[in-house]
Amino acid sequence: MDILIVAARLLLAAFLGAIIGIEREIKKRAAGFRTHIIVSVGACLIMLIGIDGFEELYGKSWDASRLAGQVISGIKHLGFYNVVEAALGADIVADAESRELVKEGFLTSSCCPAFVSYIEKNFPNLSPHISTNVSPMVAISRYIKQLDETAKIVFIGPCTAKKAEIQLDKAKKYVDVAMTFEELQSLFDSRDIEIAELDEEELDNASYFGRIFARCGGLAEAVAEGIKEHGDTEFELKAVSCDGIEECKIALLKKSKGVLDANFIEGMACVGGCVGGAGCLTHGPRNKIQVDKHGKEAIDRTISETIKDAADSIL
After folding, report:
1. Measuring CA to CA, which of 209, 210, 272, 309 is 20 to 30 A from 289?
2. Quick one: which H or E segment has residue 173?
3. What letter would DSSP give residue 130?
4. Taking the model in full, what pTM does it have?
């Protein structure tokens, strides 16, 4: 790779990291200007090394944009009949949770099982305000079971807490197994499946708003969209998005003391959101821009339209 291209990409990474860092310092949050420059440049450097290293090992370039489609193909090589985006379950949750919020007036989110458990154990006075909606995993699994009650459903994602969640009454009759991305990679390795050598398969079940559930702030955006689509113009959403369990603790503590002006608390136990989960293959900082980029591939669809066409996209 040309040294000028490398330098330009590193400078761009530093610039974008600086913007995020400045914003965090203005909001007086931890990890500010300098930290985000270092993290952004480091992540960019690792990616550049990975691209060149891949070409050196396999004799061909690596296109990161093709990887998701190749993983879908790899899953089917393992013997799975079909692959459905968990983000479609997020669309279903966003639609229902936005309705519930308008009705109740105040909610804490229920999509992160670790956040829900944290509230129940440490802030029992707020437990009645936990959304009654199931997580996206359960929502999409329940929907698939309605289409085909004989289906065996395996959830694959970055969240280790899902292994405990599928033991709960609200989940166990819909989800048969929960796996992490690390476990999926182990299955690929055991079958000698080289993902980079497979063809791409398209996965197109969810909307932009369902897909951005994967990062902190995505749920709040999706709920706002749901309220808008339902025509609840008189309801003013005041959302707080908590990035990691420490921010969750602060928001819940303030709300329990009556000093937090918010009617919706989005809690993500992992820093960065679901994409920062312990079951990921890599454990560095995650890029919000990349999540949004994936989401924008479906930007032309509303949540309502996506749910309406859900059966056609699965079958």
Report:
1. 309
2. none
3. B
4. 0.78
